[in-house]
């Protein structure tokens, strides 16, 4: 309490949202945690365009809003405002992954180098894996059959992304895919507990936490180990550029990671850590888009009318999916409405930082952007709470601007993929994945909700929304 008062007194020109008084911050923090008050939305509505502080424990957290402040964050250097600093804290990586992993997150760079810049070349594999994954998980039947939506979305994404990370046949190994899933779950839960533990106690608490993370890591190493050996053996026998050598994330980690970081354990941790960044948001996005397709079924025929002539002419390719403006718009609208957390683009303040409006935030604090509030702001999105599937394709046509409103474009009013130099490097892949998956579903199946007109409710984890995880979706072989 004393520390909180001392810190607050340093911010004369910053608004504090939430209860005041001696125990204001802890009370406000509990209200925020248990969802009884949403200080981020409250602050956004009352203080739009300004910085405001919300009640959090152990440090000050400031919320930015309005294009100018978001642009200030975009332009700040990494030694002032640090994404990795905030991931380190949020994911407690020193305890959940390995200490120093974010001092050189070269695995993140490999996403761009090995996947995005080579997306066209790898597209046929994506397409092949999408078809295989759907036909296995949702075999087309004449009559309607219910499938678990979240389980299906998750497993399609795990399999297709792993095709690009480790290749076949491991990408379709149920045990390996479960490990990826379980590892992510364990990371989130352990990080949550460690986040609430005061600094001095962290090393002690971490030794008491269950051994699930190391156990899961060992299980993953049992899969990756033989694959690494197999590739090294081929290299010994056939030379460095052996025929058929995969250009996947594993190869990049084996060959381009710093010398001291090429042990099986180091490679496996980086693989799992990259999968953590990739598959959770992507599988949530797929599941939500499928729920939207089933809920707003009037879009289906117009989407098919767009997709079919393109596919007839060119097939499904990296280039042809770029022509599917309406499909892009439908998925982007689903992301806008459902996927942004209340707290986005977190940055740890490493050096005192002065915004363009003159407000200075001291080192040690955290800055976040209110993603959910921004994406539901009527100033930028008329009827913001309504699903308007062709909102963005209309804008692309009306403004004759094919780039600005596409899913992968980032800016201060669409921060689903962040903004600036750290904007998600996987977004080009995600856009290709989601469009291919939805186009495949539209062309192969009919889809509907289990209960007509009732979209399964989202689940919120404090700041983060997730699709309903128990509901099913009904599919049958396309009849029309
Ligand atoms: C719908 C799916 C996805 C969403 C919504 C999403 C969103 C984000 C966001 C918000 C950030 C932080 C940006 C910032 O704070 O400025 C980020 C970073 C990142 N994402 Fe994604 N992402 C998705 C899928 C993926 C996929 C499929 C991959 C990998 C294949 C990926 C890899 C990364 C990496 C490596 C970073 C760190 C960037 C850096 O080091 O600067 N993401 N993502």
Automatic annotation (TrEMBL):
Cofactor(s) required for function per UniProt: heme
A family per Pfam: p450
Binding site for heme: 424
GO molecular function list: heme binding; iron ion binding; monooxygenase activity; oxidoreductase activity, acting on paired donors, with incorporation or reduction of molecular oxygen
Record keywords: Heme, Iron, Metal-binding, Monooxygenase, Oxidoreductase, Signal
UniProt keyword Transmembrane present: no
Keyword flag Thylakoid: no
Family per record: Belongs to the cytochrome P450 family.
Protein name: Cytochrome P450
Organism expressing this protein natively: Lentinula raphanica
